[in-house]
Specification:
- The chain is α/β, with parallel strands linked by helices.
- Helix content is 44%, strand content 16%.
- The chain contains 13 helices and 13 strands.
- Strand 12 and strand 13 form a beta hairpin.
- Helix 10 packs across helix 12.
- It is elongated and about 65 Å long.
Length: 330
């Protein structure tokens, strides 16, 4: 079966933040390794010329091609990194080279989705791509973004924000979280989870903040617990008692509890609740389903049970979570 290549173009220019440029290619490359589907990414670095580009870290990077070389190609994702300068008082100022802004505006018109990392949002805003949209950037330049571009609804709180086909990320390391979110959109949450495991990092769900993220699921060491975990995920909307799980695993109730403690460091009940909360978060972020429907589909039974689980695990309510982190098409 032929591989479907999604062309991801990362914009290069002098003084760009190094991790903004090098982080996403690593994430996308792992996606190819972690999926058996006929889907992959071709990541290229594009600049005005083929001359080496010196990053803010002093490391020089060679472009793969020029902006003009992209004229005849169809772009899937345009990723715009950021660059800053610091004045004598230690204040951070984003760089928005007019030539780079013009190139981004041109390329955006031929791209399925446009993304920015960190202060790269200032370049998108200067190109008019964030007008009328909610967006984020690094906390240190958020006020300036709002002041310079009053048509942009700036929210410095989330790690990243999706507004239709435009995505904006916050701090420099958010390029990894943003890349995972793009993979989740393209290939599904399961693939993004496997990539996150390889990166040994938290899986940031679309729109989620660090304090709302839960640790990556611990990797199982036995086939029995892995089968039980898959069974839970497949049947999350059904009553999942210790007795039912033990019967499925053909083991005793006490043995089941002991296996969960040893393998996952938690109880069966706590693990099931964490999976249900994750499923509910996804529904709140990506759908317009009512709380009643979400509570039923995720196995909570009632809205009250759903609310209590959210307060216990996320210190918020489902309604407040949806209000802040809704990421479906606007």
């Amino acid at each position: 079966m032929s591989t479907v290549e999604r062309l991801v173009v990362i914009v290069l220019f002098g003084g760009v933040d190094l991790l903004d440029v090098t982080g996403p290619p690593e994430v996308f490359s792992l996606a190819r390794r972690e999926t058996d589907e006929a889907a992959g990414y071709e990541v290229v670095l594009a600049a005005e010329t083929m001359d080496p580009v010196t990053t803010a870290a002093g490391v020089r990077i060679l472009p793969d091609l020029t902006f003009d070389d992209l004229a005849a190609r169809s772009l899937d994702t345009l990723l715009v990194p950021g660059a800053v300068e610091v004045d004598g008082r230690g204040r951070v100022h984003p760089l928005t080279d007019p030539a780079v802004v013009r190139r981004v505006e041109q390329l955006a018109g031929r791209t399925r989705r446009v993304t920015s990392v960190c202060v790269g949002a200032h370049i998108l805003a200067a190109a008019g791509l964030l007008d009328g949209k909610r967006a984020t950037t690094h906390w240190s330049t958020a006020q300036q973004l709002a002041a310079d571009h009053p048509l942009v609804e700036v929210d410095a709180d989330p790690i990243f924000i999706r507004a239709g086909d435009v995505w904006t990320g916050a701090g420099i390391s958010a390029c990894l979280d943003l890349s995972l979110a793009l993979i989740a959109e393209d290939l599904g949450e399961a693939v993004a989870l496997r990539v996150a495991r390889q990166l040994v990092m938290y899986l940031k769900r679309p729109g989620g903040q660090s304090q709302f993220s839960v640790p990556l699921e611990q990797v199982s060491t036995t086939r029995r617990i892995e089968d039980l975990r898959h069974y839970i995920m497949r049947n999350i909307g059904e009553p999942l008692t210790v007795a039912a799980l033990a019967a499925y695993g053909r083991i005793g109730d006490r043995q089941l509890t002991r296996i969960f403690k040893n393998e996952l460091g938690t109880t069966p009940h706590a693990y099931i609740e964490s999976v249900r909360v994750e499923r509910a978060r996804n529904q709140l972020e990506c759908t317009d389903a009512t709380l009643e429907r979400i509570a039923s589909a995720c196995g909570f039974g009632t809205v009250d049970t759903l609310v209590r689980a959210f307060r216990r695990r996320l210190d918020t309510t489902p309604t407040e979570y949806r209000r802040r982190f809704r990421t479906g098409p606007e």
